[in-house]
Specification:
- The chain is of the alpha+beta class and about 80 residues long.
- The chain has one domain.
- About 30% of the residues lie in helices and about 10% in strands.
- It has a two-stranded parallel sheet with strand order 1-2.
Length: about 80
């Protein structure tokens, strides 16, 4: 493996780096977008993040409301548009 990563990244991506057939250099250059961060999009975004991609763009037009709060994994009060 010729990935040039620091110790913090090596600890975070330890399990992924052990997969011999995965091209780590290509993964570090990928730019991926996830549209919709509900029940499916949120876990998918978390899994993509753990691959060590170069850029992960998250797009979600939904507003966080009491009726959909159970589907929000990446929500904090500071990210809310509603009052």
């Amino acid at each position: 493996m010729s990935c040039d990563i620091n110790l913090k990244e090596k600890m975070f991506f330890d399990r992924m780096l052990r997969i011999p057939w995965m091209d780590h250099e290509k993964l570090r250059e990928l730019r991926v977008g996830v549209v919709g961060l509900g029940n499916i999009g949120c876990p998918v975004a978390i899994m993509l993040y753990s691959l060590g991609l170069k850029e992960l763009l998250l797009i979600n037009r939904d507003e966080v409301e009491l009726s959909n709060i159970q589907r929000r994994f990446m929500y904090t009060q500071t990210t809310s548009n509603s009052t």
